[in-house]
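User: Continuing from earlier, I have the next pair ready.

Assistant: Great, send them over.

User: Here they are, in order.

Assistant: Folding the first of the pair now:
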Amino acid sequence: MQTNFEYFMISQVGIWIRDGKMLLLEDAAHPGKYVIPGGRIDKGEDSQKAFRREMKEEVNLDAFEVGPIVDVRVWYSGEKQTPYCAIVRLIRTETEQITLSAEHLSARWVNEDELSEILFVWEFGEDICRAGFKVFRNQYV
């Protein structure tokens, strides 16, 4: 039997909610549009190590607890319709300070009511952020 499996670029992002607000980053490649911190898994890299590496690279976050999965999304992008998969998780930390990478122009803490005013790089960005707030309330409040 012949099968035709899809091969995906996998991204992991961390929804960080503090004092009722979520951290969003303005993407330097798309000024005025926002992303959730995180990034792709490198070839051969352990997924947990990749997630921690990306959070360190994106916002200089070392110490954090990895919480539950909030959402998983699959989409196709670009001229070649490259398949992507995003794994969205909650993270928790006592850290107050962040340092942005060169991939981002600014950081913004937003509450759930502000999400409809945000332009996201991912067309489903608002949906996964709302899912993050919902899981956060159910898990930690």
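And the other member of the pair:
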Amino acid sequence: MDKIARYRSILQNVIESTATLLSQGNQVAILPACDTRNDQYLMISLGWHKTGHREHAIVFHARLSEGKLLVEIDLTEEGVSPLLIEAGVDEFDIEYSWNRNRSSESRPSSSPEHLEAVAA
């Protein structure tokens, strides 16, 4: 299996299992959306809170491009990247959209501070 096919499989498995785990015991469902044709992988939060507040948001979005896995957003509490690396994605093939085109000195070590983690 070539690298891109392997990454597709890993992404789909990690997204589906993580969405299931994050949905357990929550009022709001976390739905996996894996488009292997266009190489777009998302987790979407959808539902109603007891307070009557409706939630509909992208919790995680990654895409495969030019042999790399580009994380567009990751609002999960622990981050999905460690799970992807553990499953076999090379850490050097993961790029973060909030770090692109910045010098290494200005890159944050994790996701932007203004992004709030989704409570599990």
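Worth noting for the second one:
Residues 102-120 have pLDDT under 50 and may be disordered. Helices lie at 3-23, 81-87.
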